[in-house]
Amino acid sequence: MGNIERTFLLESNVPGKYKFICRECSRETTHIIVAAYKESGSQDCGRGNSYDWNEANQIIQCQGCEAVSFRVESTNSEDYDYDHESNTRYDIETIKFYPGRSAGLKAIDSYLLPLNVQDIYKETILAIENEQNILAGIGIRALIETICKDLNAAGKDLYNKINSLQEQGIVTKEGVETLHKLRVLGNDAAHEVKKHNQQQLSLAIQIIEHMLDGTYIIPHKVAHVLK
Ligand SMILES: [Zn+2]
Questions:
Q1: What is the Å distance from ligand 1's center to 35 Cα?
Q2: Which residues span the domain enclosing 13?
Q3: How far are the Cα atoms of 15, 33, 95, 183 from residue 68, in angstroms, in the given order?
Q4: What is the pLDDT of residues 3-24, one digit of tens each?
């Protein structure tokens, strides 16, 4: 391995406004880049070749809720693609947010959930936000199992337990059909280590959130507000 050269540059109050996903707002909002610490590096690989990289480490702030977080934008000389039409090479940009985030995840009042449901719910959200898609799929299945257990759903397996939720009047017929789809999705993740995409997982958790809202959170609020 040859010589490594790296330079760093600090830029404050980067001009412009940017559309990034805000974890608190659960959607894309306008952000400013408070500061960026930029690294450029090059490693000599011999025979006139080098490995080069650029990384901008940004402190960002949502202009809606004012939450401050961190974003890293990077490129390197190994990550590129060709546009065959114009015959040009372009760098593939990698973008990471800390903490991780995914648009559309609604922050429900999870503190009103039973503790065991709450723990699995929070970890599943973290897995989705951080693109740990296999674990997120397994989490969704575990979440459905835990909800069934908590609601004393009868049946020898998850299939029958989900059906019993409809018999108990906890979920609608459509709700049961959706839960079966999510059950299969979780099965694939657990037994075939099948990875689901961000969009599927995000939709699955939104459906579960809706159910958690109706089963635990709203009844709890009604009991306390409309006494
Ligand atoms: Zn925000």
A1: 18
A2: 4-98
A3: 17, 10, 17, 36
A4: 899 999 999 999 999 999 998 8
| Inter-CA distances, 206 with 164, 188, 203, 221, Å | 22, 19, 5, 20
Q: Ligand 1 centroid vs 67 CA: distance in angstroms?
A: 6
Residue showing tokens 């059906």: 163
Alpha carbon of 47 to ligand 1 centroid (Å): 49
Final residue of a domain: which of 76, 98, 120?
Answer: 98
pLDDT digit string, tens, across residues 104-150:
676 688 889 999 999 999 999 999 888 898 899 899 989 999 999 99
CATH number at residue 216: 1.20.120
Model confidence pTM above 0.85? no
Domain count of the fold of the chain = 2
Distance 95 CA to ligand 1 centre (A): 18
For residue 27, report the distance from its CA to the centre of ligand 1, in Å: 8
